[in-house]
Specification:
The complex is a heterodimer of chains A (254) and B (364).
Chain A lengths: L12 H4 L17 H13 L13 E2 H7 L3 H14 L2 E5 L7 E5 H11 L6 H14 L4 E3 H7 L4 H10 L2 E5 L2 E4 L4 H21 L4 E3 H6 L10 H10 L4 E5 L2 E5 L4
Antiparallel strand pairs in A: 1-3, 2-3, 4-6, 5-6, 7-9, 8-9
Helix pairs in contact in A: 2-4, 3-11, 6-8, 9-11
Chain B lengths: L1 H4 L13 E3 L4 E5 L5 E5 L13 E5 L11 E6 L6 E6 L3 E6 L4 E7 L4 E6 L8 E6 L4 E5 L4 E6 L6 E6 L6 E6 L4 E5 L8 E2 L23 E6 L5 E6 L3 E6 L4 E2 L18 E2 L7 E6 L2 E6 L5 E6 L5 E7 L4 E6 L4 E4 L12 H4 L18
Antiparallel strand pairs in B: 1-2, 2-3, 3-4, 5-6, 6-7, 7-8, 9-10, 10-11, 11-12, 13-14, 14-15, 15-16, 17-18, 18-19, 19-20, 21-22, 22-23, 23-24, 25-26, 26-27
Classes of the chains: A alpha+beta (254), B mainly beta (364).
Chain lengths: 254, 364
């Protein structure tokens, strides 16, 4: 290896990762849809299923994908391809316009069916999952779409909202949603604030990544420190500074 | 002489609304104190760190100086005999460079945020002016009055830019989150309103339909070939658009911090491969590649918020103005060629110069 020219581009956490949270890794970021799929599976491993009694499919956030695949444009493009193939669904989580959750369609379908088993709206939900999900890859649905194209009556739409598969967005339009995702969003928001607080309270408002992961998580962090760290890095709420002692996380100045 | 054929670039701000004249290598800057200064950019001192002197300026004792902050300055696109400046004192002044007297003054009802004159126009001499009102005004230099109003925006116009490719295409950015492309020959309204979701209604809440950003749109910059348009907004995003059909190319630059309440002047390189966009980011300047969205580096050197930057393609230099009252020139660093590791192998002597004499004293 010849002596490298000094790089203008610092090695970010994402491209040098695999020493950070997430375990062993291999491929260079970017490339085909494979790298985002791999990233999603890895994030699925980090998701704490037992916390929700296995009722929720593993939800990964888009910002976490950016942390694992540092080339954002390529990550977006691959996500679009996966959406077009029908492998993943994007869910609007509601607390932030930017925060979108990504679930694998298969997991979503299994968990949604499991959550409505034995309830009166089971049939409607089954019909929804069978007819609307494959046909329409959008994040939200409109009144006309639901009634005319797919033939759902108003009472059936109310049943879907009660089941948790749809969430009200506007008068006459609904977001697609994961049943039982409310608890996840609550833990996520609290956990994100708690992890940011850990960095904020430290001297000089910066922490080594290894130090942060070694600390005991405060009680409000239920989803696990690595999960939140990926989200904060990918969402650019923390800056990555490569140092000789490892990666440093720093709060941005502004 | 390339300078005469080059398109002029957009001005900067505080202290500099900077503008370069390629032919005479001088730069215009307008400051928040209303002063306009001309600098000579050529560096004859051969030192690595040099200071450009101000050749002349329209200072506070000039009778026609702007009363409030100068927002935009621009050289007349065809030569440096004239320049235009617009300011928060609701005027746009046309100056004669040799005498430093205003040749004409246009008055408006609201503060002027931005103005631009087309760099490639031959058939018209219109200056597009964005003011606090929602109407874009086009002022004609030949007749000395506002000839044209473009209606369509709902709030103040923060940035205007003519296309460097077509002389009748104008882009305007407004605080109502919309960016519109106009053909000024058309009477019936804008050509395209840029939509960040490319028509997919499902992505965002219904209020965000047809908007270019989720906040005020602060800055506009066409690429040099005029085929793409970069916009920057207070939702901390920068977007790249295809200027012919208004499609969002969905290049993701990440978070581009933008806290400016008025327009933000950023600039694109010319003659580099790949092209870079230089965006003021707090007190540093962020450099991104335009078409792939990668953050290359942050240029640090200012002590306070950077307001504007402009690129000089002939010298390949970047000039930036900031609230610390400094204008800095960023010069590309020439790297020393690294010595190769297999140096010894390369220094093989030409056999013609080898001699057969042994180097030892003894006979050999």
């Amino acid at each position: 290896m010849s002596r490298k020219r000094p790089r203008l581009v610092p090695e970010t956490f994402g491209s040098r990762r695999r020493r950070g949270p997430g375990g062993a890794g291999e491929e260079p970021p970017g490339g085909e849809a494979g790298s985002v799929r791999r990233a999603l599976r890895e994030l699925g491993e980090l998701f704490p299923r037992l916390l929700f009694q296995d009722a929720l499919p593993p939800i990964a956030l888009k910002s976490q994908v950016y942390s694992l695949v540092p080339d954002r444009t390529a990550a977006d493009r691959q996500l679009r391809e996966l959406r077009e193939l029908g492998e993943v669904r994007v869910i609007q989580l509601g607390f932030d316009a930017d925060a979108q959750g990504i679930v694998f369609t298969e997991d979503f379908r299994t968990k949604a069916l499991a959550s409505c088993r034995g309830r009166p709206y089971e049939g409607t939900v089954k019909r929804f999952l069978a007819s609307v999900l494959p046909a329409c890859g959008d994040l939200s649905f409109h009144q006309d779409q639901m009634t005319q194209t797919f033939g759902f009556r108003d009472c059936e739409i109310t049943q879907l909202v009660n089941a948790g598969v749809l969430t009200v967005r506007d008068a006459g339009s609904w977001w697609l949603s994961v049943p039982g995702a409310g608890r996840f969003v609550k833990y996520f928001v609290k956990g994100r604030q708690a992890v940011l607080g850990m960095v904020r309270k430290s001297k000089y408002r910066e922490l080594l990544l290894s130090e942060l992961l070694a600390r005991r998580a405060p009680l409000s962090v239920r989803l696990g420190l690595p999960y939140h760290v990926h989200d904060l890095i990918g969402g650019q709420l923390l800056d990555i500074v490569p140092t000789t002692s490892g990666t440093l996380l720093r709060l941005p100045e502004t | 002489m390339l300078g005469f054929l080059e398109a002029r670039q957009v001005g900067l701000d505080d202290p500099g609304r900077l503008r370069r004249a390629e032919a005479t290598r001088s730069m215009l800057s307008g400051g928040s104190d209303g002063i306009i200064a001309l600098y000579d950019l050529e560096n004859f001192s051969r030192k690595v760190h040099y200071t450009c002197k101000s050749i002349c300026s329209v200072g506070r004792n000039h009778p026609d100086v702007h009363k409030y902050s100068v927002e935009t300055v621009q050289w007349y696109p065809h030569d440096t005999g004239m320049f235009t400046s617009s300011s928060f004192d609701k005027t746009l002044k046309i100056w004669d460079t040799n005498t430093l007297q205003p040749a004409d003054v246009f008055h408006f009802e609201g503060t002027v945020y931005s103005h631009h004159m087309s760099p490639v126009a031959t058939k018209h001499c219109l200056i597009a002016v964005g003011t606090k009102g929602p109407k874009v005004q086009l002022c004609d230099l030949k007749s000395g009055s506002c000839s044209h109003i473009l209606q369509g925006h709902r709030q103040e116009i923060l940035a205007v830019s003519w296309s460097p490719r077509y002389e009748y295409i104008l882009a305007t950015a407004s605080a109502d989150s919309k960016v519109k492309l106009w053909d000024i020959r058309r009477a019936s309204g804008c050509l395209i309103t840029l939509d960040q979701h490319n028509g997919e209604k499902s992505k965002a809440s219904s209020e965000a339909a047809n908007t270019a950003h989720n906040g005020r749109v602060n800055g506009l910059c066409f690429t040099r070939d005029g085929l793409h348009l970069l916009t920057i907004g207070t939702d901390d995003r920068m977007r790249l658009w295809n200027s012919s059909n208004g499609e969002n190319t969905l290049v993701n630059y990440g978070k581009v911090c933008n806290e400016s309440r008025k327009g933000l002047k950023f600039t694109i390189s010319h003659g580099c491969s790949p092209e870079f966009v230089f965006v003021p980011y707090g007190s540093a300047i962020a450099v991104y590649t335009v078409y792939s969205g990668e953050l290359i580096t942050m240029l640090r050197g200012h002590y306070n918020t950077v307001d504007c930057c402009v690129f000089q393609p002939n010298f390949q230099e970047l000039y930036s103005g900031s609230r610390d009252c400094n204008i800095l020139a960023w010069v590309p660093a020439l790297r020393e060629p690294l010595p190769d590791e297999d140096d010894e192998a390369e220094t093989q002597k030409n056999p013609a110069f080898e001699d057969a004499w042994s180097s030892s004293d003894e006979e050999g």
